[in-house]
Amino acid sequence: MDMLKHLKEKSQKRRRLLAQQLGAGSTENLSSILGNQDDRNASSASKKLKMDPVVMSDAESKNEEYKASKQPTTTEDPVEEVDDKVRTYTDSSTFLKGTQSANPHNDYCQHFVDTGQRPQNFIRDVGLADRFEEYPKLKELIRLKDELIAVTATPPMYLKCDLETFDFRELNCKFDVILVEAPLEEYQRTYGMTNMKFWTWEEIMKLDIEEVSSPRSFIFLWCGSSDGLDLGRQCLRKWGFRRCEDICWIKTNINNPGHTKNLEPRAIFQRTKEHCLMGIKGTVRRSTDGDFIHANIDIDLIISEEPEYGSIAKPEEIFHIIEHFCLGRRRLHVFGRDVTVRPGWLTIGPALTNSNFNREAYNSYFNKSQVDYLTGCPDRIEALRPKSPTPKSKGGGSGASGRGGSARGGGRSRIGNRGRGSHRGRQ
C-alpha cells in the first residue's frame, strides 16, 4: 500500500508539472487541452468493472508509447493517470518538448547499432555526377578541367615489374605526381587478403621514390587507418617530401549494411575510414605558381561505398583530385593494377599482367618545350577557379610576378603545407 501511495503521489506531481508547462492552470484542464477527454471518460467508466490498480510493465509501457506515437496528432499523449489506475512510464519525451532529445529518429548512433547503416550513408550529393548541381560555376569549372585533362593526357603506359628489386632510375623520367598504393599488412588483417604479397612499412620505405620525383612535385600515399598514419610520414621524410594534407576516405555501406566482423585486435571502434597522406617537395606557392597547381577545387574527403570483402580497391575519385589539383602531366602510379591503368599515367607494379612501357616514347611527350610537361590553363578556367586569400605583405610591396601564372597579391604564402584546402600551413 505504501508503494501504491508513492506511485500516486509521483503521478500527481508529474501532472502538475505538465500542467504548468502547458499553461493549463490546473490538472483538471489537461484532458481538454491535450484532446484526450474521451480516454479519461473511458477510464472513469472502467472503474466500475475493475477496481484493482494496474502497474504496467516496461514492455507494456513501451507498447503503449509506440501506439500513442502512431496517432495522427501533433501533440504527444500526456502521462494521464487516474486515481484508480497507476502507470509506470520510462520514456521522458513528454517532459522534453522543444528539445532535440525528444526526437529519437535523429539518433544516427543508435540507428547504426540497430541496423548497421553507417551515419555517412545519409550524406547527400557525394557522387561526382550530382555533387555540384546547386553550384553551376563549380560544375562548369569541373567540366572544363576534365576536358583539359582528357585532351592533354598521354596514352596509358604500364610496366610489370618486381618493385623489391626494380631500379626506378630505369624509368629515365622525373614525375610531377606520384601515387603510392602499397598492399599493406593491415589489409591482410582487415580485408582477409591472402593471395598476394603484403609489404611492411620498412620495405615501403626502401623504395627509391626520391630518384624519380621532380624538384617541385607531390606524392599521395595510401597509409591505411592505424600505424601507417605515423610510419607513412616517416616515408615521406625519407623520400624528401613534407606532409601538407591528409585526404580521408569515408566508407559507406549502403549496398551491404551490417557490422564489420573483421575487427583488429587493438581497435576500440569499427574502422570505416582510410587515409591518404599528401606530401610536397620543393617550393610551391599559391599566389605565384598558378601554372603548376590549382588549389581549392576539391575537398579533402572522399565519401564512397566500401569495396566488397577481400578487395583492396581504392576510390577512383583520388585520381580526379590529383588531376584537378596538379597541372603536371608526368604522373606515376606505384603498385598499380590492370583496373587502375588510365590515360595520363604510367602504372608500374607486380600485379600487372602485361607491359607496354617505352621510355623513349614516354619522354617524347614532354620534351617539345620547357613547359610541355604542363597542361596549361585557359582563361575561362582561371576566371572560374576559387582563389586562395592573399596574405598581407610584410614589406608593404606590390609583390612578385608568378611563374607562368598571374600574381594575385604581394604575399609569399606557401602551398606546400596545405595542398588543396584552406590556407593553414606554415607561412
TrEMBL record:
- UniProt GO cellular component terms: nucleus; RNA N6-methyladenosine methyltransferase complex
Identify the taxonomic lineage of the organism of origin.
Eukaryota, Metazoa, Ecdysozoa, Arthropoda, Chelicerata
Q: Where is the composition biased (Gly residues)?
A: 394-413
| Keyword line | Nucleus
Compositionally biased tracts (Basic residues): 415-427
Q: Where is the composition biased (Polar residues)?
A: 23-35
Protein's name in the database = N(6)-adenosine-methyltransferase non-catalytic subunit METTL14
The compartments listed are: Nucleus
Note the superkingdom of the native organism.
Answer: Eukaryota
Specify where the region named Disordered lies, as residue ranges.
1-84, 383-427
Q: Which GO terms describe its molecular function?
A: mRNA binding
Q: Where is the composition biased (Basic and acidic residues)?
A: 1-10, 59-68
Describe the family membership recorded for this protein in Swiss-Prot or TrEMBL. Belongs to the MT-A70-like family.
What species does this protein belong to? Trichonephila clavata
Fetch the InterPro entries from UniProt. METTL14-like, MT-A70-like, SAM-dependent_MTases_sf
Chief localization: nucleus
